[in-house]
Structures are given as structure tokens and as C-alpha cells.
Amino acid sequence: MCFAYWRTPLGKRAALAVAVTLAGAFLLITATDADARSRKRQRAAGAWQAGFSAIVIDAKTGAILDEESPDALRHPASLTKIMTLYMLFERIEQQKLTLKSKLKVSEFASEQPPSKLGVREGQTIEVEDAIKALVTRSANDVAVVIAEALAGDQEAFALQMTRKARALGMSNTVFKNASGLPDREQVTTARDMATLGRAIQDRFPSLYRFFSTQSFYYKGRVIANHNRLLGRVTGVDGIKTGYTNASGFNLVTSVRHKNRHIVSVVLGGRTGAARDQYMRELIADNLDDAHAGPRTAPLVAEAPPPAPVRTAKAPPAKQPQEEKPRVARAPQPKPQPKQQPVVVAGSNEPIRPIPVKTMPLDADGKVMEQKTAQANAFAFSNLSIGNSMPVQMALAPNQAPIIVADASAAAQQQAQAPAPITAGALAYNEVKPHPLAETPQIRPQPQPQVQSPNAPREMSETEELELEAQALAAAAKENDLMPVTPKNTPRRTQVASTNSIPVPAAPASAAAGDDEGDPLPVAARTGWSIQVGAFPNSKAAKQRLNDAKESATALLAKVTPYTEKVSKDSTNLFRARFAGFRSEWHAKRTCQTLQKHNFDCLVAKN
């Protein structure tokens, strides 16, 4: 019956409708998956995500005093103009421009959106006024004027800016224009902006003074600086603000005070006032921690450009030469070796000495070593002209010539004695050790240190938390202490009121030493405090305080650590606390930093 229905015209139309519906649903699901994959590819390709970043660097040592997401990609906005001015300062240093040089305004530059100085096409503006317009008004039209004057157009200038950023070590920064107007591909980081803020001071110390300009006059108008910290925060000498909808409120600040120098960056503020307040707090919290002595960090300088790759040139091909006819040469007689002159009997020429090399030999026929150097290594034979006589000939018929020579006995002894030889003549006979014959020096390998089985074992953080949980569970029956947070609950910053915190118990007379806790400091009576744990003894609580200070030294440098004892019946617990935070914001921010280092943290109002 069912099959018969599908064979009818009505059933066929119903089957066709079902098939079309299924096909449409399949295509819709496929398109949705494709869109999701496309969005995923965009995120994986480094698409910028909005957020907040900050960093504080000691300019004298290069040390990082404070940071929050310093390498996350952000839009620079008008902080881009710091690099624009860096490129302009470079041309002034090279004497290609002066402060009185005039830059021409193009139609494209005059049409830039605000903020702008209002220059018109065909006009000119002096370099000094252009610098002040970028520092104070953050004029987009003047930024394009500078770009066109230095590189011809803004696109070529942006490429030069990016190359300069790479040379300075700003590896995560890309510039697409000279003004900082919105461009999705124009990105930077807080660390890179701090590097640029330090580099422009180190490279151009005399021109950096323009960043402290609070206002200047241009054609009868007073142009004020957007940086509200200049003249209001002690030690601030620049440098630049920035804002777009995509970037939020940005600020790079340089502070010189108390023989200290820091450079701080804030990116992504919600409002200008919130950004400025955050910068003030960063300066107050970190300036005293900066180095007050002489500078130890090297100047921030550009890396040398890579050397051009040299390619080996092929040698020029030899030109074929015509073969010359070869002519057979007649055989030449072989040269005879030069012989010593032979003295023939009956000659009137005196006997000439022959130079020979003599060596003293021992009884076994080996060369004897000479201990002291002597002159005349290659001495002539002692037969010389002075002790030789002419040969007298006595001839008889049919008689061979007889050589008659009369030499003195002393001359004969001298002829038999060996000639002295210098040490230099026998230098090649000295036995020298082979370079590989020396015994190699083998350094002993360090032996791993084996911990003694009787040595006390350091308590892990998990065991400390378990002890704290046991103590809290025992005291929670009376509802006097804070409830224990389950281990599987993510940590978060909590704010507690004084109504839920039990009053510290008075010291018992029977207890003494570490079991009493610390007296309540003055800083714990007002303001805010944070608690990093509760432990069954004060020694463990103090150890926790020391560990926390090592993890967040800069944030905990100005607060007071103390232990607080609370008791109920027979249960004692020692809280590890820091007091002296000026605001709830400071306490929460410190807790967030400690939680990144696996510390439990609780915010409480004193």
C-alpha cells in the first residue's frame, strides 16, 4: 500500500519536495561550516583582537618593572606618528632638512580626516611647525605632508617605517600609513612601542625636546597638547597619545625624576581619563623601583642592514687561439755538473780549501748533541792558503812525478781535528714532541648530588592547600571562617567585608614564639588587604608570604606582610596577609598577578 502511494503522481511530488528540502538543508549546513572555517582561518592568520596592554621599562637598565599582555597585537593609532617623527629627525640629523625647511602640501594631504591642522593644497609648512603639529594636535594632514616629502607618497613611506621598525627590534609592528588612521593590518605591541619610545630619545636627544611642547602658536591660533600628563605629573617629559575606535586610548610616557628614568606604555584604555589614571598609578608604583645609579643598558640602536649577497661570477671564456706550427728542435747536450777544480801535479797554483760540513760523532757513529751554541757552523777545512805550500816537482827520466809537500805537524793535527758546529746547524736534529703526543686533560664530570634520605622535605603547594582545607573545614562548623573553595572551581578575585572576618584572637599566655602570629600593623586598620592562604602554623604562613613577594616583587614592595592568628575552640589558623593597598583596584590587580603564579588570593577591606 505504501509503495503504491509513492508511485502515484501525488506521491512523486511529495517525494520530490522531501528531496529538495534535504538538499537545501545539506547546502545550508555546508555553507555554515565553510563560513566557520573561513573565520577560523582569519583568526589563525593573526587578525587583531581588541584588548588591553601595558608595560613599564627601566630605561637605565632595560629591566621590565611591570607588564600586562605586552606582546599582544594592538592598533597603534596616533602612536604611529612617533615613528613618522623618527624618520623626519633622521633626515634633519643627516642635514638633508633643517627646522626652517618648507614642506609642500598636496591635495591628498589636505583631505585627510581629523584631527588635523587645516593646511591647504599648495601651501607650505616649516619643518619645526610640522613637528609641533604632530606632537600637540596629532595632525593627520601634516603627517601625510611629511611622508610625501620624505618618500614621495605615503605607501612608500610606510614601507620605510616598517623596515626601520625591524632594524630597531620591533618585530611585531607593521605600518601602513604615516598618521595612524584605522587600517586593519597596521599593528604593534606595548613592548614595541616602549622600544620606539626609548630609541627616539637615545638617537635624537636634542630633537626629543619637542615632545615636551605643551602648546604652540600657528597662524594666530594656540594649539594645545593632547597629553594631559605634561605639566601635571612630576617628571613627565613626553611623549605621545593616540586614539581610534579600534585601538582605544593609547599613551606612551617618559618620566625622569629622582635620578631615575622609566618609559611606560598603556594601550586600549576605555576612556582618556581612565587611561591617564592608569598611567599615573603605573608611574607611582614603579618609579621608586627603577635604578637610581648610572645607566648600564646600551643605547637602543638600529641593527646594521644585511650585507648584499655576492654571487660568484663565471670566469670569461677563453678565446680559441690559432695553433702555431711546431718546429722540431735539435737535441741539446745535457749540462754537465760543475766540478771542483782539479790540481794537477806540477801546477804552480796553490791548493784551495774546499768548504765542507763537519759533525762530531760518538763511539757508535751517532751525531753528538751540542750544549752550547758555537759560531762558524759551516767552517772550512783547516787546510788554507796560510798553511799550504807550493808543490815542488822532481822529475827523472822515465819517472812519474813525485809530489813533495812539507806541512807542519800542528797543521796536520788541525786538519785531523773536527771543525766546531753551531747549535743552529744541528737544529733539525733536535727531537720535538708530536702535537698529538701530549696527554689530553680530561675534566671530571660533575657528580649528581644525592639528597640525604634524612633531609627535611619541602612541603608542596598541594599539601599546603590540603592542610588549609582541613583547617577551614574544622572551623567552618561554627561559621566563623571563610568557606573553602572547591579545587575544581576556577580561582577568581574575591572581595570580603569585615563582617565575615573573625576578630583575631588575643595571644594566649601559654603560646609563645611563632605560634602567636604578628601584631596587627597600622596598615591593616585602613584601606584594603589581600590574603594568600591560611595555614596551621605561622612558619608556613610566613613562608607563603616570602614566596608571594618573590613572584610579584614590584607590586608587593610597598605593602606590609603579616600573619594573623584566628582561633575557635581548639582550632588555630594563621592567615598570610599583605596590608596597605590604597584602593580596591590595586588589591584586585595584585591578586590577578598572583593567581597567574598559582597563588590563592582573597581581597578584603580593612
What features would you highlight for this structure?
single chain; Beta-lactamase; Alpha-Beta Plaits; five-stranded antiparallel beta sheet; five-stranded mixed beta sheet; 16 strands
Low-pLDDT stretches are: 36-49, 341-347, 371-388, 402-411, 417-432, 434-457, 477-513
The CATH superfamily of the domain at 53-289 is identified as: DD-peptidase/beta-lactamase superfamily
- Helices and strands, in order, run as HHEEHEHEHHHHEEEEEHEEHHEEHEEHE
Provide the CATH topology of the domain at 53-289: Beta-lactamase
Major sheet attributes: 5 strands, antiparallel
The neighbouring-strand order within the major sheet is: 2-1-9-8-7
Q: Which range best describes the helical content: under 10%, 10-25%, 25-40%, 40-55%, 55-70% or over 70%?
A: 25-40%
Please describe what this structure looks like.
- The chain is of the alpha+beta class and 606 residues long.
- Helix 3 packs across helix 6 and helix 6 packs across helix 7.
- 29% of the residues lie in helices and 15% in strands.
- The radius of gyration is 47 Å and the shape is extended.
- The protein starts with a helix and ends with a strand.
- Among the domains are: 237 residues, DD-peptidase/beta-lactamase superfamily (Beta-lactamase, 3-Layer(aba) Sandwich), CATH 3.40.710.10; 139 residues, Sporulation related repeat (Alpha-Beta Plaits), CATH 3.30.70.1070.
- The chain is built from 13 helices and 16 strands.
- About 21% of the residues have low confidence.
- The chain has a five-stranded antiparallel beta sheet, with helices on both faces. It has a five-stranded mixed beta sheet with strand order 12-16-13-15-14. Strands 3-4 form a two-stranded antiparallel sheet.
